[in-house]
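[job 0417] fold request received: Class I SAM-dependent methyltransferase
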Amino acid sequence: MWLDPFLSELQAGDGLPVLDLGCGAGNNALYLTERGVPVVACDLSEEALKLVSERVPEVRTLVLNLLEPLPFGDGTAPAIVADLSLHYFHWADTERIVAELRRVLKPGGLLLCRVNSIRDTEYGAGQGTELEPGLYESGGRIKRFFERDQTEALFANWTIEALEENVLLRYEKPKRAWMVAARRDWA
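[job 0417] inference complete; emitting structure tokens
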């Protein structure tokens, strides 16, 4: 599991929940809950949250639109997981979302995320109409694909502890994504 290297820190959150943003079916929420980490699973889809509630009944769920301010106080989350949920937006929106994640994290808090790689051709990279560098529209949906330098630029105000391009094998075809572990500074 991609969260394994960070598990001890995720477990040391003083009982505060990890925010799982764009939780989908709840794979990360299930993994964390099974290891004693409290989680708030957030998604835009009420259907996805219903599935999470059935799979992991002890997890609190919350309907959340990442384009709106997050309903959490400043510096309240010890960690945030955003697994394949930050790449559906125009660049300016993506920057605002990442700034909002930084606001919600405690000083020294950890953001763990995965975003599409520009080499993820099996899942849409380079396909459709390019709206911005790396952002494609196809079938009425938009999806961003990141180069390494774009990923670094997005987290320029963070301490990047890990940035790796990985191949995920959980789907029908291999999927390429950047894994980022970024820490909010103490200021």
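[job 0417] notes: The chain has a mean pLDDT of 95. Residues 4-117+148-183 form a domain with the Rossmann fold fold (CATH 3.40.50.150).
[job 0417] exit 0
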